[in-house]
Specification:
Layout: H1 19-26, E1 31-41, E2 52-56, E3 64-69, E4 75-82, E5 93-98, H2 99-105, E6 112-119
Parallel strand pairs: 1-5, 2-4
Antiparallel strand pairs: 1-6, 2-5, 3-4, 3-6
């Protein structure tokens, strides 16, 4: 029996456009998790198409991660664009998400506890 191709993501997918890619990357891969603080970088990218992006060290660029708000359980799927820059404002921060992803998670500006998961 042939396996059907993965469902394509769309802007209406729960957690955003990259959800199906996250599920595809997770197949047969080793799951990694971490908890820590998220902060925001100002961006309007993703507001319309729900393609969320983030910066995180130690994760290969173009990996899709699932970010969960530990308070309300809301999730987004974000594409790692680059390493987190070594700057004072990033001290103690696990990752930085664009403004639209933070809004989707129900998080105001500032630092907030989140759980992240990705596949290696």
């Amino acid at each position: 029996i042939a396996t059907p191709p993965p469902a394509a993501s769309s802007p209406s997918s729960p957690g955003g456009y990259f959800r199906a890619l996250y599920m595809e990357q997770a197949k047969g891969a080793v799951s990694q998790t971490a908890s820590g603080l998220v902060s925001q970088f100002k961006s309007s990218i993703g507001r319309e198409d729900r393609k969320f992006y983030e910066l995180m060290s130690g994760v290969t660029p173009n990996t899709v991660i699932r970010v969960t708000n530990t308070v309300n359980g809301k999730q987004v799927y974000a594409n790692v664009r680059n390493e987190l820059p070594l700057m004072r404002e990033n001290d103690g921060v696990l990752l930085r998400l664009g403004s639209p992803a933070m809004e989707e998670l129900g998080l105001p500006e500032g630092r907030h506890e989140v759980k992240v998961a990705w596949s290696k």
